[in-house]
Amino acid sequence: MRDLLRSNQREAFAVLVLAVLVTFYLATHPAGPTTYVTTILANQALILALAAIAQFFAVIVRGIDLSVGAVMALTNCVASYLVIGSGLDMAFGIIVALLVGAGCGLLNGLLVVYGRIQPIVVTLATASLFVGFALLLRPTPGGQIDYDLADAMTLDLFGIPTALVITAAIIGLIWVPLRRTGLGLGLYAVGSSEQAAFQSGMPVVKIRLASFTLGGLFAGIAGLYFSFVTTTGDAGIGPNFTLNSIAAVVLGGVALRGGVGTLTGAIAGAFILKTIGALMFFSGLPPLAQPFVEGLILATAIAIGGADVLRVRNRLEVFGR
Amino acid sequence: MPRPDTAIVHLSGVSKIYGATKALSEVDFSCFGGEIHAILGENGAGKSTLMKLVSGVIQPTIGAVHIDGSPAKLVSPADAMSRGLICMFQELSLVPDLTVRENLMLGAPGTGLGRLNTKVVARAQDVLSRIDGASIRMNTRVADLTLAESQQVEIAKALSRNPRLLILDEATSALNASVVEKVFHLIRAERDRGVGVLFISHRFHEIEALADRISIFRNGAHVETFDNGAYDYGAIISKMVGQRIDDLFPPKPEADPNAEDVIAINGFGWGERLKDVSITLRKGQITGLGGLDGQGQGDVLHGLFGLLKGTNGTCVMGGKTLSLTHPKTAKSPKLGIALVPEDRKTEGLILDQSIARNLELAALGVDGIDAGDPAIYQQFLDALELKCDSLDQTISELSGGNQQKVALTKWLALGPRCMLLADPTRGIDVKTKTQIYALLRRLADSGIAILLLSTDYEELIHLCDETHIFYNGRIVQHLSGADITAENIIAASLNMHVGSKQAEAAHHA
Description:
The structure holds 2 protein chains of 2 kinds.
Chain A lengths: L1 H6 L1 H20 L6 H26 L7 H15 L4 H28 L4 H19 L9 H8 L1 E2 L2 E2 H18 L2 H11 L1 H6 L4 H27 L7 H14 L11 H21 L6 H16 L16
Antiparallel strand pairs in A: 1-2
Helix pairs in contact in A: 2-13, 3-8, 3-11, 3-12, 3-13, 4-5, 4-6, 4-11, 4-12, 5-6, 5-11, 7-11, 9-11, 12-13
Chain B lengths: L8 E10 L2 E11 L4 E5 L6 H8 L7 E6 L2 E3 L4 H6 L2 E4 L11 H6 L13 H12 L16 H13 L5 E5 L7 H16 L3 E5 L3 H7 L2 E6 L2 E7 L5 H8 L20 E10 L3 E9 L3 E6 L5 H8 L6 E7 L2 E2 L5 H5 L5 E4 L3 H5 L6 H9 L11 H10 L15 H13 L5 E5 L7 H16 L3 E5 L3 H7 L2 E6 L2 E7 L5 H8 L7 H8 L1
Parallel strand pairs in B: 3-8, 3-9, 6-7, 7-8, 13-18, 13-19, 16-17, 17-18
Antiparallel strand pairs in B: 1-2, 1-4, 4-5, 9-10, 11-12, 11-14, 14-15, 19-20
Helix pairs in contact in B: 4-5, 12-14, 13-14
C-alpha cells in the first residue's frame, strides 16, 4: 500500500484536490447539489477529460500532441453531417468519426516514427491540416446531431450524470485492462527509457504508433462528445482544447518528460480545471481576472511538479532533464 | 563437460565501424554451450561492442553471424531474445519509472503487446531469493532501488527468461563479495545445465574464479582465446597491453620535487560516488587520473570546478580553504581554474555557433578580460594550428580535433593557474593528439598545474609526473616517476595488487 501510494502520489494528490473543489462547488452553488448542476459540470469536464486522455497518450511516450483540438474540430464537423437519421445511419456516422480520429493519430505517429521528426513539430503541422479539412466541411458553424442520442449521452442515468458513467467506463473497461497488457507497460517503458525498453526486447516502433493512434481515437471521441453537448459542428473549437488538454495532464500528475502518470490522473486534471472555471464563474471574480487566476493555479501546480530539480546534486544533470 | 561441436554464436570476420573509428575489426569469435567464457580488455578494446552485436542491439558493418551453425541476422534485442540470447547490460536495461514486477514482465518471452506473462515473476523471485534479494519488494519503483538492488533485479530478469546464452556485461560491479559468490553459484548451475555464458568483468579475481575460457581483446581485435589457467597474471596483462608509440609524446622533463602547491584537495568525497580522495596539484606538473571509465575520476574534476553539491573534504589554494560551489567562482581570476569537459559536443562547445562566439564564452563575465578581442585567442590558435576558413565558421563544420582545439583555446585565453582536462584526446586523430600533448607540456613548463583525466594509459605514462588510479570511487594506487608503467596502471585499474614495492610505499606515504 505504501509503495502504491508512493508511485501514485501525484494522482492521489490530484484526486484529493478535485474532491475538495467539487465539494466546495456543490456546497456553494446557489441551486444546491442537484443532478442538473452536476450534469452540466460533468458534461463540460468530460469533453476536456477526453481531450486530456488524447494528450496523455502522446505525453506518456515522451511526446506532445498539438493536434488534439484540431482532431476534435474535424470529428465534430464530420459528426455534424453523419450522426443523424436512422439508428444504422448514426452508428455508421459514429464509426466514421472515430475512424477519422484514429486515422489522424496514426498519421501523426507515422510522421514521428518514420519521418524522425519531433512530435511537437509534426502535430503543429498536422493540426493546421486537420483544421483545414474541418473548415472545408463546415466553413461556418452548423449542421445537426440527432437530439435523442445527444440527450441520452448528456443527461443522466437514474440521477447519475451519463458523463460520469462514461468516465467510469473508460477507466474500468479500457484503462485498467490496458494497464495489464504488454502494450500498457510498453507505453511507460518507451516514455521512461526508450533504450531500456528496446534492450528488453519491446517493439518500440509499434508502441509509439499504437500510442499516437489511441491518442487520435480519444481526440475523436472528444470531438464526438462535444457534438453531443453542442449538437452542431464548428471548425473553430480546436486551439482552446489543445492548450487545456496539456494543462489538464500536467495538473493530473503526468510528467511532460514521459513515462510517469496515469490516465486517471489526466481525467482528474481535466475535472479540476473545469471545476475551477465553474467556481470562478460563481465567485463574483471579474471575468477579466479569471485567466490570471487560472494561470496562477497552473503555474503553481507545475512548479510543485518540478521541485525535484532542487535535489539534483550535479549541476550538469539539471540540463539533462 | 566436452565442448559441443557447434557454437551457439559464431562470428566470422566481423567488423563494426562508426564513422572513422573501428570499434571491432575482423573478429572471429565463438562461444559454446556449457562453458563460461570471459572477455578481457581495456576501455575501448571492443568488449561492449561485441556484447551489443551478440544481443542484437547493433548489427555488424561487415562479416557474418552464425547461430547454431546457420547464418543469421540479429535485427533487434527481441530477435536475439527469441533465440535464447539473453543479455544483462552494463547500462541497466531496467525502466526507472516502472515497478520491479513490471520490469520483470517487460518483454518477457510470450508477452508481446498482449497479456502479460506473470509466471516469469515467480521465477525471478525465486532467483532473487537465492542471491540475497528476497527483501526487494515487487511494487517498488526501480528508480527507488539502490544500484546493487537494480543489478540483482537485472540478474533475476535475465535468468527468468530461460537463456541458452547468457551475456553478462559488468553484471556484478555494484554487488558485494558474498552476493557475488551467490550469483556465481547460479551462473555455474546454468552452465552445468548446458547454458553458455559470456562474461565481462573488470574484477580480475572474478574472472579467475569463474571462467572456463578467456578471450582477450585489444583495440577492437580479438587477440587470443585460451583456457583459464593457461597463463599467469603477467602474461595476460602483457597481452592486453598494445604496441607503444614513443614519438607521439614530447620529452618528459624530470619532475621538480620542490614545486610549489597550487591546489590540494584532502579527503574529498561526494556521496557514494567518491570517497576520501586526496590529490595535490603542483606548479608546472601534470597529474594524471587513471582507471576504468566512471570510477569517480570525472567527479573529481566536476567537484573541483564547482559543479557538485554536497561534497565533503577540504580544498586548499595558496594557504586558504576554498568553497567550490559554482563554475563562476572556479573560473574567476582569483582561483583561475579551467575545465575542458569530457564531451566537447554537449558540454564544451555550442555546435551551431561560430568559432569566434564559442571562444568568447569562457571569458565572458570575467573581470579584466575583453572577451570580444580576437587577439587574446590568436597565440593559442596558432600554437595548435587550428584549421578553419575563418573564425566565423560554424563549429559543427570542424573535425573533432579542431573542435577540441577551440574548446582548449577558450580556456587558455583566461590564463588559468590550474587546468582540468577530461580525456582531451578521445576520438581525435594522431596529429592533433601530438599537438595537444606538446601544448600541455608547454603549458606545464610555463607554470600551470594540470590535472589530466585519461583512459589512455600511454598519456599517463608519457605526460604525467604523478598518476592516481581510481577504482570504485577511491584512489587505489598512487604512481609516480618510473612506477608509471602500463602494467602497473592496468593492474591497479583492475584492482589487482601486483604493483611494485615503490608504488606500495608511495601508497602508504
